[in-house]
Design goal:
The chain has helices at about 30-50, 70-75, 90-95, 100-110, 140-155, 175-185, 235-250, 280-285, 290-300, 305-330, and strands at about 85, 160-165, 190-195, 200, 205, 225-230, 255-260. Strand 2 (about 160-165), helix 6 and strand 3 form a beta-alpha-beta unit. It has about 350 residues and is an alpha/beta fold. The longest helix has 25 residues, at about 30-50. The protein starts with about 25 loop residues before the first helix and ends in a 19-residue tail after the last helix. The strands form two sheets. It has a five-stranded parallel beta sheet with strand order 1-2-3-7-6, with helices on both faces. It has a single domain, classed as 3-Layer(aba) Sandwich (Rossmann fold). The protein is globular, with a radius of gyration of 20 Å.
Length: about 350
């Protein structure tokens, strides 16, 4: 149901957000890398759907299918040493920042070769060498952490930028407002990225908030707030570039609201519309504007890619991810002695 179509059709439909005559001002290399990143995320998640029913992967999984353009577009503007803080729905951000799929799959299987040595599972991957100091499943929990690293960066004058991804549910939390206030006050190098998929688990935004325009909340903290189509990877890339450059140059924080939609349920590979949590018509309307299919159609019409390039990329991803999945599943479990390791900082003598 959620497979990437590999047909050679180049026709555009009503979901198309790019015009062939547009000059995007982005190099073909960057455009192809954005496509590569989105396909990596989509196929990575689809592989989880394929094996999750076997029950070997014990960790709960919150899949990112349908939201790939946000992680790809934002993270394409980050340096390796920039910080990223994310949520329980973390796979896409980790992959877009450069985490090895083998280490992620191993982590989800609870193996010692995982990025958190099998202790974090799907909701708590970490990759400090890539600026991912830890992932938190606490709603809104990553927002103040990103403000903290941004404060440290400003004090050290090291030029690093912090990015925090969070859902619309996190904007219900006091820490969201406190963090925007402090970041604005201190002009910190942080970008707040709200992935507004309209539901906190199954509770719609309209049932929780008096108005639905999250980006406008930036006005009260005297920082830019920008609303984006979360399926439009080019718009996200361009606006995120401005926000990251602004933060890195001392211009302070920005709030981006990317309106998007998760194609599967809040947790697990099932479709929650089957349980009456969301209307199927709503899901269908978002699937029609699939970020990958829309972008692929544009790149084909612009001759930035060919259908052979696209299909080769799909095959390449399948080979890489099948190998990564086998690596994760066949890696050893942690020894019992690992239980109390890596809980505290141990200074070497």
């Amino acid at each position: 149901m959620f497979r990437i179509r590999s047909s050679d059709s180049t026709s555009r439909d009503k979901a198309m957000t790019y015009r062939v005559e547009d000059d995007l001002g982005i190099s073909n290399e960057v455009l192809r890398e954005l496509m590569r990143s989105m396909i990596l995320i989509r196929r990575f998640e689809e592989k989880i759907i394929d094996v999750y029913g076997d029950q070997d992967m014990k960790s709960p999984v919150h899949l990112y299918i349908g939201e790939e353009a946000i992680a790809a577009g934002v993270c394409a503007n980050l340096r390796e040493d920039d910080y990223v803080f994310t949520t329980h729905r973390s796979h896409g951000h980790c992959l877009a920042k450069g985490v090895d799929p083998k280490q992620l799959y191993a982590e989800f299987y609870g193996r010692v070769t995982g990025c958190s040595r099998g202790k974090g599972g799907s909701m708590h991957p970490a990759a400090p060498d890539l600026g991912i100091l830890g992932t938190t499943a606490i709603v809104g929990g990553g927002i103040p952490l990103a403000v903290g690293t941004a404060l440290a960066s400003k004090m050290r004058d090291d030029g690093r930028v912090s990015v925090t991804f969070f859902g619309d549910g996190a904007t219900d939390e006091g820490t969201f407002h406190e963090s925007l206030n402090f970041a604005s006050l201190k002009q910190l190098p942080v970008v707040f990225v709200c992935e507004n998929n309209f539901y906190a688990t199954n509770s719609p935004l309209s049932a929780r908030q008096p108005h639905l325009e999250i980006y406008k909340r930036a006005t009260g903290y005297n920082i830019p707030g920008i609303e984006l189509d979360g399926s439009d990877v080019v718009a996200i890339y361009e606006v995120a570039k401005e926000a990251v450059d602004r933060a890195r140059s001392g211009g302070g924080p920005t709030l981006l609201e990317c309106k998007t939609y998760r194609w599967v349920g809040h947790v697990g590979p099932d479709c929650d519309y089957e349980r009456g949590c969301r209307p199927k018509e709503e899901l269908d309307s978002w699937m029609e504007k699939c970020p990958i299919e829309t972008f692929k159609s544009y790149l084909l019409e612009q001759s930035t890619i060919t259908i052979d390039w696209y299909q080769d990329l799909l095959r390449e991803m399948d080979v890489e991810l099948d190998s990564a999945l086998e690596f994760g599943k066949n890696s050893p479990f942690p020894e019992k002695t690992e239980l109390l390791k890596h809980l505290y900082f141990e200074e070497s003598v």
